[in-house]
Amino acid sequence: MFSILGEGRGHMTQAMAVKEMVERAGHQVVCAAIGLGSNRTPPAYFVDAMRVPIVTILTLQFSYKNNRMVDLSGTVTGIVRNIPAYRRGVRALRDAVREHQPDVIINFFEAVAGIYALTTRRRPPVVAVAHQFMFGHPDYVRAPGMRLQQLGMKWLVGIAGAASIRLALSLYEASDLPEKKLTVCPPILRRQLFSLHPNPNGDFVLVYLLNHGYADQILEWHQKHPRTVLHCFSF
User: Fold this and answer.
1) CB distance 93 to 131 below 8 Å
2) Buried b (16+ CB within 10 A) or exposed e, 214-233
3) For the whole model, what pTM was predicted?
4) Which of 11, 141, 186, 195 suits 131 as a labelling partner, its CA being 20 to 30 A distant?
5) Does residue 164 contact residue 126 with C-beta atoms inside 8 Å?
6) Cα(74)–Cα(62) distance, rounded to whole angstroms?
């Protein structure tokens, strides 16, 4: 069984790749639980790729100022307000496990699944997979400053990986940390990627935009640098 954070596309893409891997190895994915914000729905390409029963739960979500910066106080207030919904999400996961009887749960950074793992005694083992788990590694490359934001991210990472075996996806080599139950792994890539042909004229900047509030800044920058080609993907 999969549990997947559905905010953004990265974790869903990883789940699609892992589904291909485990099925080639002779295993079966029996159910997928996806955590979404209150105004999100699972994208059609993900539903088509999973081809299994999908359970939708409300995930822990950030509040934003002007759809850009994280509003810390608003985020905390929203989380407290939605505690009953998170409890319903945990119950939905328990019901799905009871119905589908998976041997293992792979959690792609869904915080409610971490709460489930922490609060449920009789359950399958949970393997939590995300590049965010590198945040707790001493070799992780950190930006200076933003101490409060880093504390908030550390808290979220701790919840998502609670009571779980954690696999940290890394773009560079780093040692495992068995004392922290942390194993470092390479990125998870879809098989279709290796059939693509590189474009020798690919002189452009790729923009992946989760929050639309940054669009005006990107347009303003591009007006000052019109020779630079931008390819923008917006959630």
Assistant:
1) no
2) beeeeeeebeeeeeeeeeee
3) 0.91
4) 195
5) yes
6) 8
In what helix (H) or strand (E) does residue 3 lie, and over which residues does it extend? strand 2-5
pLDDT band (50, 70, 90) for residue 40:
confident
Backbone angles phi and psi of 26, in degrees to 5: 95, 10
Q: Which tokens belong to 202?
A: 């690919």
Query: How many Å apart are CA 39 and CA 155, to the nearest integer?
Result: 24
DSSP helix/strand/coil, 177: strand
* DSSP for 105-173, written as a single string: EEEES-HHHHHHHHH-SS---EEEEEGGGGGGSTT----SS-HHHHHHHHHHHHHHTTTSEEEEE-SS-
- 75: Cβ contacts below 8 Å, ≥ 6 apart: 61, 62, 63, 152
Question: Three-class SS of residue 63?
Answer: coil
The residue type found at 182 is L
Residue 58 has pLDDT above 80, yes or no: yes
- List Cβ neighbours of 32 (8 Å cut-off, separation of 6 or more): 1, 2, 3, 4, 15, 50, 52, 53, 54, 55
Task: List the helix and strand counts (H, then E) for the chain.
Answer: 7, 11
pLDDT in tens, 108-167: 999 999 999 999 999 999 999 999 999 989 999 887 877 777 888 889 999 999 999 999
Query: Is residue 163 exposed (0-12), middle (13-18) or buried (19+ Cβ within 10 Å)?
Result: middle
Question: What per-residue string of b and e applies to 25-37 under the rule 16 or more CB within 10 Å gives b?
Answer: eeeebbbbbbbbe
Give CA–CA dist 32/34, Å, rounded: 6
